Amino acid sequence: MRQNVNELKGSGGLLCRQHRGGALSPPRGQTRSLTLFPKLKMATGVLQRVRGGFSPAKSRALSAGNLSLWVRGLSTSSNRNREDSWFRSLFVRKVDPRKDAHSTLLTKNEESNLYKIQFHNVKPECLDAYNKLCEDVLPSIHADKYYPCELVGTWNTWYGEQDQAVHLWRYRGGYPALTEVMNKLRQNKEFTAYRKERGKMLLSRRNQLLLEFSFWNEPVPRDGPNIYELRSYQLRPGTMIEWGNYWARAIRYRQRNREAVGGFFSQIGDLYMVHHLWAYKDLQSREDTRNAVWQQEGWHEVVYYTVPLIQHMDSRVMIPTKASPLQ
Fold first, then answer.
1. What is the mean pLDDT of residues 276-286?
2. Which candidate, 268, 239, 247, places its Cα nearest to that of 102?
3. Cβ atoms 204, 121 nearer than 8 A
4. Which of helix, strand or coil describes residue 172?
5. Sorted alphabetically, which InterPro entries does this protein's record hold (predicted)?
6. Is residue 285 exposed (0-12), middle (13-18) or buried (19+ Cβ within 10 Å)?
7. For residue range 97-144, what is the model confidence (pLDDT) as tens digits?
8. Do 130 and 165 contact (CB within 8 A), yes or no?
């Protein structure tokens, strides 16, 4: 379900401390940014005085020659102090050059796994037939060594978008493996018939190509019964590295009950999209686990600093189908 991040609350507690007036405050000890306000106030005063120097009244009071000298002196002084001026540092952001793509910095460099996530919106009256069709075809592709791909999991959405199927595939070998699988499946008559029959049951479909975060566990088959939550975050452009830095430390808070299944970010499809996949025994277990994490020192800081990076977010609670390796 989509949530406005300005109204976002974590289970069991607010995102950060809240004053009586309703304003959010940073975690204890994080007041460094407050020192910027006196500087901004001083900067505003300087700008007002400079602007006042060019007002009509001031221009009439100064002769053309005096005004020229005054401006020239101001320019010389500004140039002389340009490099080390605190005033200039308030408005100029230095950008550190990078030689690596963000995806290279965030993934497991020793591996080249590529993931594809598929969202299929099924006609309500066709959902059972759709699941039966997938159970007959998808496991055979997963088990056949001829195809360098694996079915990580397949689910139906329980809460969230209704009558929706979600499939997650892994391609060991990256883009070449994906291309190889696609080329081979075009020659597979059974798969061609499956796609044709599947098309009659769908309202719409979409997919994304994903990479996995280096600090998350690789998804592996697990016994059930479990429910799964897919939390999807649309980040603000340019914030993926910052998100990764915070969650590289935060993931340790979410490992105690083995609820962390996998973490991914998009490469093709909706960009700056992050998916976190969690497993719980049931909805009450989910509630208890999420409430317990707020009792751990440091978790509220992770939430406080990552929430501003999010444009919007979705949550799906999903039930694995019979064909899913993640049960």
1. 96
2. 239
3. yes
4. strand
5. Dimeric_a/b-barrel (IPR011008), NIPSNAP (IPR012577), NipSnap_domain (IPR051557)
6. middle
7. 545 555 566 776 656 799 999 999 999 999 999 999 999 999 999 999
8. yes
